[in-house]
Amino acid sequence: MTENHNILCLHRLITSLLSIYRRKDLTNITLSDILSPERQGLKYQQNLISILWSVWMTVCIALTFEEGAGVVVASDRMTTSNYPPIEFEHKRKKIRKLNDHCAVLSSGDALAPKEILEPAKYNISQRTSSSIQEITDIVKEEYVNYRCKFAEDLYLKPRGITFKEFYNVYVNKWPTGMVGNIDQMIQKEDVGVRFIVAGHDSDKAHIYGLFDPGVSVCWDDLGYAAVGIGEIHAASFITPKYSQDISMSDAKKLILKAKRASEMAPGVGRKTDMAIITSKGFTELSDNDIKKLDAEIKK
């Protein structure tokens, strides 16, 4: 009875996570698949483990304070490889500055953010000024470019054609069934990365989320956001305690408490990075600052 209940809970958890992370190609997993994964073959098992591992690990959180006067962000440093599944806490931080008033936090695949964010950061630097929404749109454009290149390398380059050639020429030359199958694989491909873009522009502080296949969401009305396997723990902790007029001091404590609460989730690291962004710019909290905050929230 207990074993069957655990299997049922595992099935619900897997399908919920895959739905949340927009893995439409795997959301039809059945209990039979979990009980007898060999029915799907080794490739299926590796794909499932890879996707679950990449979406489970880490937590990134952002929270605005004082009616948008600023935003505080926090993340762990857990790094994962997809298959075989390996996790460790890296020295590299997941909070990356895009300019003096904006930062991006990443969850999921550890390698993709560099290829997405480096060209995005260059394009941002070529502008004299940008709103947080405009910066998000730049990151989104590079996200889509990376996703297209990834799908092209995976499904089209082995066939000797490019993305443009496939959609401009070969859709009319190849058999409909073949074209449909390739197109479906491309549409379902997920690079396994989620971003939080947070910052302050001439207006106020803003928080945006960016997800596959290149969709952005503004979280300003909610006032906070979290991504990663620890997002449910973090958001559940913040929700009853948060108001948009919260002070900066209390916001720092609340987000750190939420980060600590998220460490209950498997794959969330203990190491913590934090930063504050206001009209005055980007300020990173030192390890000593975070230790002091830890001591305060334990009182």
Briefly say what this structure is.
The protein has 10 helices and 12 strands. It is of the alpha+beta class and 299 residues long. It is elongated, with a radius of gyration of 21 Å.
Topology of this structure?
Elements: H1 2-20, H2 31-35, H3 41-56, E1 59-65, E2 70-75, E3 78-81, E4 86-89, E5 95-99, E6 102-108, H4 112-125, H5 132-156, H6 163-168, H7 176-188, E7 193-200, E8 205-211, E9 215-218, E10 224-228, H8 231-238, H9 248-262, E11 273-278, E12 281-284, H10 287-297
Name the strands of the widest sheet in spatial order. 10-1-2-11-12
* Overall pLDDT confidence: 84
**Structural class estimated from helices and strands:** alpha+beta
Radius of gyration, taken over Cα atoms and rounded to an integer in Å: 21 Å
Show unreliable segments. Answer: 20-27, 37-44
Q: How many β-strand stretches?
A: 12
Major sheet attributes: 5 strands, antiparallel
Shape: elongated
Q: What is the terminal-to-terminal distance?
A: 43 Å
* Helical amount: 40-55%
Total count of helical runs of at least 4 residues: 10
Order of helix and strand elements from N to C terminus? HHHEEEEEEHHHHEEEEHHEEH
**Roughly what fraction of the amino acids lie in strands?**
15-25%
